[in-house]
Amino acid sequence: MNTAFQHQTVSRAAVRYTGVAIVLHWAIALMILSMIPMGWWMVRALKKPETQQLAYQLFQIHKSIGFAILALTVLRIVWRATHKPPALPSGMKLWERFLANATHIAFYGLMLILPLTGWIYVSSGWAIATDRPLDVATSWFGLFPIPHLPGLEGNRSLAFGAMGAHSYMAYGGAVLIALHVAAALKHQFIERDGVLAQMVPFLRAGKAAHGTSGKGKTSGLSHGFGLALVVMAAAIGWVLHLPPPLAEQPSSVEAQAEPTTTTPQSPASASQANPAQTDVQTAPVQAATAPVWVIDMASSSIGFGGTHAGNAFNGRFEEWSGDIRFDPANLPGSKAVILVKTASARTGDATQEGSLKNGEWLNSTRFPEAKFETTEFRALGGDRYEAKGTLSIKNKPLPVVLPFTLKMEGNKAQVDGALELDRAALNLGMFSDPSAEWVSKTISVKIAVSATKSDS
Ligand code: HEM
Fold it and tell me: Where is the composition biased (Low complexity) (predicted)?
């Protein structure tokens, strides 16, 4: 596709676009050509269980290429504004100039607005396929996160409108590409005026002289027409895709941080959480008289794992602290309180890390800390123990039992424990993924603590 605004009066018409303009043209063209079938396929593949996982992975690639197109388009506009392109061949008819100019400006409009509508859509944190909140962070080819546009989270109408515009512009763009390619081929093989050679370095320039005209009376009009086409496609897509009113769902992802009566929760998870909570509230609080242990953070860790889109993931919390008082001979006087910074969850995958902090998962902005507080220690024989306690994530207490082994040598101790958590009982991701289509219901937690007994 040629550069827009290109057919202006030039005093000395260049024969070719500059190398940078040619590279940008073909890079963007190839990316757009891949994006349209990719977008088409992934939207459909998402609905079938056998292709869902691949579709999910493609989403990240689609978003990454889309952002590359956006960045390169901005670069291309800057380049175009500062470099004169070759003029149109002098023999072109008025209507041909009009159409050429309109098509080119429409391409610029599409290359900017199409990725922007994609960005708006993902920033809304709402999946139109399931009509539910689904906040997926964007990681640019897994290298760095790209933030959501602010203030759009949980906006359902915006999600539907933006994706309607996105899809109309994308398929409208396919029609435009077909016209553009047809015009280029006509120039090459029928007119033989060398227009294609301006963008394809190895083609020989044609017979026709390049004119100096092109701006003239029709230029403003054709640019207006080209832009109007894009805006019209976006507006029609937006309006036709507006969703029907939603009766009983909360309006934002944030609302899902707290379980509500409308939150889908399996009967099993509900019955698991409630009676147990009562137990914990009535459990006697013990006085901690056992010696204090200082955690060696460098050789201690709190890890977690599960599956995501069919693949295993493992992560750890980078920031946490613990107040441990423990004596195997004085279990009633032993106590541990562990505080974990929820924003410090790391899995090595920027998308997962971004999503973990979000509203319906750990909601780190509102609930920066998770807490595990023991209520009772029990000796199980040998070096085996268990700690009963309360795990509070997003201020929701859940009773848990942590079995662990204890190895003591002098004033050093090594504790290794593991437990499995049902994320439904902790209200993690229960609105967007209640049936564990993406993320396993069971999350395993592993704790390794090295500590030294304090003298004090
Ligand atoms: C020029 C760049 C782009 C092109 C040509 C393009 C093209 C497409 C197409 C053809 C679809 C399928 C629409 C349908 O059948 O309903 C699609 C869907 C999608 N696009 Fe893009 N896209 C571009 C940029 C972006 C960007 C930058 C993002 C995000 C940052 C994005 C996010 C998405 C998402 C999330 C969907 C699936 C929506 C759903 O859940 O159904 N796209 N895109």
Answer: 255-278
- What is the spatial distance between Cα 450 and Cα 379, in angstroms, rounded to a whole number? 19
Judge whether 339 and 392 are in contact, CB under 8 Å: no
Indicate the number of domains in the chain: 2
Ligand 1: centre distance to CA 169 (Å): 10
**CA 434/CA 443 separation, integer angstroms:** 14
Task: Give the residue from 143, 169, 204 where a domain finishes.
Answer: 204
Q: Rounded to whole angstroms, how far apart are CA atoms 56 and 54?
A: 5
pTM (2 d.p.): 0.64
CA distances from 96 to 93, 215, 229, 392 (A): 5, 13, 17, 68
Query: Tens digits of per-residue pLDDT, 130-166?
Result: 788 888 888 899 888 899 999 998 899 999 999 999 9
Q: What is the band of 318 on the pLDDT scale with cuts at 50, 70, 90?
A: very high
Do 182 and 305 share a domain, yes or no? no
Tell me if 108 CB under 6 Å of ligand 1.
no
Tell me the per-residue pLDDT of 337-359, one tens digit each, with 9 for 90 and over.
Answer: 999 999 999 998 877 787 888 77
Cα distance between residue 279 and residue 276, in whole Å: 5
Q: What domain range is 354 assigned to?
A: 292-453
Q: Is the domain of 301 the same as that of 422?
A: yes
Whether 247 is covered by a domain: the verdict is no
Check: CB of residue 22 under 8 Å from CB of residue 52. no
Residue 409 pLDDT exceeds 80 = yes
CATH code for the domain of 103: 1.20.950
Choose among 205, 58, 397: nearest CA to 196: 205
Q: What is the mean pLDDT of residues 351-368?
A: 83
At 402 the pLDDT is 96
Ligand 1 atom with minimal separation from the 37 CA: 10
Q: Is the CB of 166 under 6 A from ligand 1?
A: yes
φ and ψ of 424, to 5 deg: -65, -40
Q: Return mean pLDDT, the chain.
A: 82
CA 283 – ligand 1 centroid, Å:
53
Tell me if 137 CB under 6 Å of ligand 1: no
Answer yes or no: do 182 and 330 share one domain: no
Collect all residues with Cβ–Cβ distance below 8 Å to 448 and sequence separation of at least 6: 299, 300, 301, 303, 414, 415, 416
